[in-house]
Design goal:
111 residues; single chain; seven-stranded mixed β-sheet; 11 strands; mainly beta; 0% helix
Length: 111
């Protein structure tokens, strides 16, 4: 049974930082791309960042220079460091690998 469990969300003021974590269990995903998505109320789910087994991570234009995705293969965990947060970053953030999704973690940025 594959599980992805996100944590680290919360309420933060604009300009603040949060670090999200996604712990994977049941399989090893070191050979696969892993990504963070987000979905704001009334909007479609969108890709925020993706990290590949090799090469450079990719980011949505809206978060470039502010967010950093990383992973620890030994811990089977992928992280999303979010700095200089803006109210428009408010959303539920989801971790994804292949066709597996976590339950999501709420990030709320107050102005």
């Amino acid at each position: 049974q594959v599980q992805l469990v996100e944590s680290g969300g919360g309420l933060v003021q604009a300009g603040g930082s949060l670090r999200l974590s996604c712990a994977a269990s049941g399989r090893t995903f070191s050979s696969y791309a892993m990504g963070w998505f987000r979905q704001a109320p009334g909007k479609e789910r969108e890709l925020v960042a993706v990290i590949f087994p090799v090469g450079t991570p990719s980011y949505a234009d809206s978060v470039k220079g502010r967010f950093t995705i990383s992973k620890d293969n030994a811990k089977k965990t992928v992280y999303l460091q979010m700095n200089t947060l803006k109210p428009e970053d408010t959303a539920v953030y989801y971790c994804n690998v292949q066709n597996y999704w976590g339950q999501g973690t709420q990030v709320t940025v107050s102005s």
